[in-house]
Specification:
3 domains; 14 helices; Rossmann fold; 19% strand; five-stranded parallel beta sheet; 47% helix; 394 residues; seven-stranded mixed beta sheet; alpha/beta
Length: 394
């Protein structure tokens, strides 16, 4: 496996060597012509010119135009609080890449999490800004309309969403998904059932979308069947701010011993606290958004959560830079920039070709786009519990 830091140097070194070899070839051909014409003095002067140009070629290459990556992000609208942290991860990656000697520009366009604005943002970045590649860090249902355009134009698009194989087919060979594979969370959720064999009745509160919420619904339902647990009620809603009091009231009435929730956490915990729910709460990783500005929230004491295992090095680096926890998909934004720049550094004119060979160790597991699927984030997932203000691995 290639070390990530070396990937940024491989492309530039390759181009530099090619240019220098071309100088040598030109020098050799011209010198032979001069010699055949009896112009020995001119050979010496030309050799000096070639030597000077040869030595200068490295600095010419080093001063090549910076890499330009467009980012379509929900800077405003309903996704802003999530994209805020993904963009922090991107900013951290850009700073590290620039410090390594590769000049990178990130050009942001606001989608406001609206399909029509996503398309206009894509066209602007592609046709006006002339970026080398585009990253979209918005919800999957907003990114999906871009896939036929990407397939038709052969444009490089990296999405922090849409990991399913069906989307890979729609986007074609220049589309890549860097989102954590929610399906990989299954083993971590199963650990909850293993640690709590007394739990026999659960309820589900789920954001109703095909990519995120319904993936969790499928996992939780399958695990309940496997462990002989009854699902007493399911609340599905595509409202970003629903009233959770009615469904939580039903859950309590139907004697749910645990609630599995993949939905807006602030309003859910407010309803659960108001109704004095006494059972376990098992949450998707979006519960971390409650810790955006503080590491202590009494209402999540005792709550279970499944989240990718982010390296402690990245966690501390992020906290030092932003004075915030790397909540939600901050690391996914970080890896989106690192992977895209690695591909561009190796093949700027056809980065998709380089991406199909890309494999390195990321901050939450393997980043591997060398397989048959466009989804390359193989992050490890683990079960955690909030105890005494700390996030403890179970």
């Amino acid at each position: 496996m290639i070390n990530y830091d070396n990937l940024l140097r491989l492309g530039m070194e390759k181009v530099t060597v090619i240019v220098m070899l071309l100088w040598v070839a030109v020098a050799a051909v011209v010198a032979l012509v001069f010699r055949s014409m009896g112009c020995l003095g001119r050979i010496s002067r030309f050799s000096l010119f070639v030597l000077t140009s040869f030595l200068a070629s490295g600095s010419v290459i080093a001063e090549a135009a910076p890499l330009r990556v467009g980012v379509i992000s929900g800077l405003s609208g309903i996704a802003a609080k999530w994209n805020r942290f993904q963009n922090m991860g991107m900013q951290l990656a850009r700073e590290e890449i620039n410090a390594s000697g590769t000049e990178l520009e990130l050009i942001f366009e606001d989608s406001a999490t609206q399909g029509a604005r996503v398309i206009s943002a894509f066209n602007k970045l592609s046709d006006f800004d002339k970026v080398d590649a585009i990253i979209i860090d918005d919800f999957g249902f907003v990114a999906a309309p871009l896939l036929p355009i990407v397939r038709q134009r052969g444009s490089f698009l990296y999405a922090i969403s849409l990991p399913q194989d069906s989307y890979c087919e729609q986007g074609g060979p220049t589309f890549f998904s860097g989102t954590s594979q929610f399906s990989n969370s299954r083993d971590a959720f199963e650990r909850y059932f293993t640690l709590n064999p007394n739990i026999k009745r659960i309820a589900l509160a789920i954001f109703d979308d095909p990519e995120w919420g319904n993936t969790y619904k499928s996992i939780w339902t399958d695990l309940a069947i496997k462990h002989g647990v009854e699902v007493v009620d399911v609340f599905l809603s595509d409202d970003f701010a629903p009233d959770f009091v009615p469904p939580v009231s039903r859950f309590i009435h139907r004697r749910a011993e645990a609630i599995f929730v993949a939905h807006e956490p602030e309003r859910f915990f407010k309803a659960a606290r108001q109704l004095k729910f006494k059972g376990d709460i098992v949450a998707a990783n979006n519960v971390l958004e409650m810790l955006a500005d503080t590491e202590v929230r009494p209402e999540i004491e005792g709550v279970y959560m499944v989240d990718p295992e982010i390296s402690e090095e990245f966690r501390q680096k992020f906290i030092a830079r932003f004075k915030r926890l790397p909540i939600l998909e901050a690391y996914a934004g970080y890896e989106a920039v690192r992977a895209t720049v690695a591909a561009l550094s190796k093949n700027r004119t056809a980065p998709a070709n380089a991406m199909h060979e890309l494999k390195y160790r990321g901050v939450a597991g393997e980043i591997d786009f060398s397989g048959k699927t466009c989804a390359g984030n193989q992050a490890r997932w683990a079960l955690y519990r909030f105890q005494k203000g700390r996030q403890i691995r179970q």
